[in-house]
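Running low. Invent one:
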Amino acid sequence: MGFLYGLRIPLTLAERRTTAFRFFQDVEAWGSREASFPSSDLIGPDTPLTRLLGSVVSEVFPSHGGFLDAAVYDASGLSQTKGVRKTSLRLVWPGILVDADRAARVRDLIVNRLSSASAEGGQIAELEAKLKELNPANAWHSVLGDGAYAGRASVRMPLCDRVAPLPLRGPERRPFAPVGVLRFSISPEGKIKMEWLCREADLDHAEWIKIGCVREGEEARELTEWSVPAWPGSQIVTPSSVRSGRVKVRTAAGSDGVGCGGGLRLRGSTRGNFTAERAGQMMTVERRFSSSPAEFSEKMEQHLGKAIMDPDGALVWKQPGGDARIVMYSEDQCVKVIGRPNQVRQLAVILAPYTEAMEQAGGHHLAPSYSERLPEQDHQRSTSRSRPSEVFAPNVAPLSEPTPTGEGPPAVVQDPGAAPEAKGEEGHLHVATQAFEPQGQGELALQQGSSVQVVLDPEAGVKSQDRWVYGRLEDSGLCGWFPLSHSVRAQV
């Protein structure tokens, strides 16, 4: 790979992301047909964005020993997909080991800090203004996207070129070229000094490949110790619901081929042209804003453009290119985010600096991720849970207490007097009839023959195998969501 890159004939290889991988961040900014944003103004020893990244990473991963290193790669150039120039950078932190859940949560914290800093003015606000002046799509939640952690399981390798999608289907001539290794020196007082530890010419191509790959072997180290990201008014929302076609989940419209499912629901006729729509539930998250309606509207217009007026008087901002929307009700200062899980997550990041959780009893409850064991006491109280496809385990709330809000959708509290059949598969032991490989955070890996206890069946009344349930593996205690169609109830 390094030899061919030296001959200016880069390969187009990708590595499959392992469950535990080196922490990496993709920083991408769109330009115009003629110009792109200088990569040195985004990542470098003197940029405000790099300083903020180093500050957040050192805060979340405190066992750094006084310094952190990040290998920087640059794949900027003309994007054949959109026909405009694109600044594309990647930071790989070789000393930090994470899973997709943790990587996405750190990304959300960084976007929140950037949005807050932009609202306060200063260097971050000036940087954002320059990015949006070049291309209005360069909002912080887009510049630091989460697609590499949620939507796809493969990651382009260092020194390798990107392949444009159909109909072009060819190299874009912008491989990940090494820039250098940045060292973040952190003092006991928290002050950060940034400098180049080495540059491209200081290492051969093989070394740049080694330090830039994210995969870990079968004997991977334990995940790096971390401090769970949190901020005032933080809101835990679901990850991207995008799933690859490899995951065989049947839908109401049947499978995509003979003898297999594809997780795609077809809209309209199955003959001729059709639109493939990813199956996913719509969800609603409520927030409250403390400013005046006019001030809040001005903030939303900066991100999403002009609002439209609903017949009931509510103002609505729609996500460009999608059906997700933010609805503002001036009378009670309530804001609703409506859309699919991945869309709601992106819009919630925009809202975070300007809104807070709805005022209700109860505190924030951070449930364990799919890679962590569910405590026994939580397992015993798991009859009150929220809906499937979430990155975190469902929230727990006794029937007599109000349901905590502000950290994802409202928890589902079942009536103890409900009919037994309403619980569906809850409490039953299932055996996996086929393997299931997680494609997103919060999902539970299954091997054929694995025994899994169903902890929550939120769509029990649907009476369909095409639903997701929350379960706990009998042998390891790992918890997460999995498709019910991949298992059968064990014979007692």
